[in-house]
Amino acid sequence: MVQVNQDRVLFDRARAVIPGGVSSPVRAFGSVGGTPLFIAEATGPYVVDANGDTFVDLVCSWGPALLGHAHPEVVAAVRDAAGRGLSFGAPTAAEVELAEAIRARVPVAEQVRFVSTGTEATMTAVRLARGATGRDVIVKFAGCYHGHSDALLAAAGSGVATQGLPGSAGVTAAAAADTVVVAYNDLAAVERVFAQQGDRIAAVITEAAPANMGVVPPAPGFNAALRDIASRHGALLILDEVLTGFRVGPGGWLGLEGGYAPDIVTFGKVVGGGMPLAALGGRAELMQLLAPVGPVYQAGTLSGNPLATAAGLATLHLADDAVYGLVDRRSLELQAAVGEALRRESVPHVIQSAGSLFSVFFRDGDVGDYEAAKAQDQTAFGRFFHAMLQEGVALPPSAFEAWFLSAAHDDRAMERVYAALPLAARAVASG
Ligand code: PMP
């Protein structure tokens, strides 16, 4: 009997009613080809697709699933909250507790505003920085992703530091022109931009440790130097920890690196424990420029949603040192195993990490910025990806994404990954 591929059936149906069949572009397998897994359920380190096939999941919902999928205590907290009502449009005790929990882990976040997505968190951070400084220009780095608000969807032009160009159809030239795009890790370019228009710059925004062009860690002292340059020119530093926050350690990347204080920090992903929740935090006097205290408007019907705050609180409560220690160890083991498999087949590659986050670039030599990240062999990644998938391991379906682990990735799950690696390396080598 011929097996019908239910993922395929769903993808065909999906494409008829949803653009590209997906609710967020990278899910469509556009760069690796093939049919995305339609996930029916997920537990611990595994996802199950519409065919009932089980895969070891190295996507972890793109970060949130630090404890693994459907952690019983997180699910129980959400169930419990759901029984008390789904949304009130009014303040709750859980919001207060979650804000306190965030501040305890990231002390620069003296006050916190909750939103539903990372996009909203960074968009609000930008508005707050503009409101606080009375200036218009935002400096961002090529290859850093901060969500899809207009100002942050500016693309780099051909120069080292360029006035932004619209990074998407529908972003006006005016919105992009107030964003200056600089090559990542290039402090000289940042200095130059500030020397030229420092009195117009409201903020520099950077991923705490970039992981949206593959993992490209900041050069030692880079973030601290940004702090210094911004301060000298009266501009703010926005540290985007949407991806790294509460994932690489209890205090995020800032907790690992330390030594400097951003004005605004943005959070998402882990902080919502898999539910739609994100946040921005900063010094109290700065945060109080937000409505209703101050003149910078920001709001949200579902902001601080009770199910999301319950999931976030349960997740932060469970994310102790043992969790981070385990994820760190798994990450190191996996990086070593990937490296060995690729070396054996003489596949050019470089593995880069930032805390437990890592990614594999199919090219030789260190990757310090987006231009270098783009100069990888994406076809090789596609072959590697599909060979892993064939063996029951779901990697992020793009060469520009970090691989994610969780505390639920136990020996059994990892053995399956390790068994798949030599085959995937061979698939790359044999072209
Ligand atoms: N900032 C960073 C660093 C991110 O990685 C992302 C999402 N990948 C965002 C912002 C946007 O978050 P969201 O997808 O929740 O809007």
TrEMBL record:
<dbReference type="InterPro" id="IPR004639">
    <property type="entry name" value="4pyrrol_synth_GluAld_NH2Trfase"/>
</dbReference>
<dbReference type="InterPro" id="IPR049704">
    <property type="entry name" value="Aminotrans_3_PPA_site"/>
</dbReference>
<dbReference type="Pfam" id="PF00202">
    <property type="entry name" value="Aminotran_3"/>
</dbReference>
<keyword id="KW-0963">Cytoplasm</keyword>
<dbReference type="GO" id="GO:0030170">
    <property type="term" value="F:pyridoxal phosphate binding"/>
</dbReference>
<comment type="subunit">
    <text>Homodimer.</text>
</comment>
<dbReference type="InterPro" id="IPR005814">
    <property type="entry name" value="Aminotrans_3"/>
</dbReference>
<dbReference type="GO" id="GO:0006782">
    <property type="term" value="P:protoporphyrinogen IX biosynthetic process"/>
</dbReference>
<dbReference type="GO" id="GO:0005737">
    <property type="term" value="C:cytoplasm"/>
</dbReference>
<feature type="modified residue" description="N6-(pyridoxal phosphate)lysine">
    <location>
        <position position="269"/>
    </location>
</feature>
<dbReference type="GO" id="GO:0008483">
    <property type="term" value="F:transaminase activity"/>
</dbReference>
<dbReference type="InterPro" id="IPR015421">
    <property type="entry name" value="PyrdxlP-dep_Trfase_major"/>
</dbReference>
<keyword id="KW-0663">Pyridoxal phosphate</keyword>
<dbReference type="InterPro" id="IPR015422">
    <property type="entry name" value="PyrdxlP-dep_Trfase_small"/>
</dbReference>
<keyword id="KW-0627">Porphyrin biosynthesis</keyword>
<comment type="pathway">
    <text>Porphyrin-containing compound metabolism; protoporphyrin-IX biosynthesis; 5-aminolevulinate from L-glutamyl-tRNA(Glu): step 2/2.</text>
</comment>
<keyword id="KW-0413">Isomerase</keyword>
<dbReference type="InterPro" id="IPR015424">
    <property type="entry name" value="PyrdxlP-dep_Trfase"/>
</dbReference>
<comment type="similarity">
    <text>Belongs to the class-III pyridoxal-phosphate-dependent aminotransferase family. HemL subfamily.</text>
</comment>
<protein>
    <recommendedName>
        <fullName>Glutamate-1-semialdehyde 2,1-aminomutase</fullName>
        <ecNumber>5.4.3.8</ecNumber>
    </recommendedName>
</protein>
<dbReference type="GO" id="GO:0042286">
    <property type="term" value="F:glutamate-1-semialdehyde 2,1-aminomutase activity"/>
</dbReference>
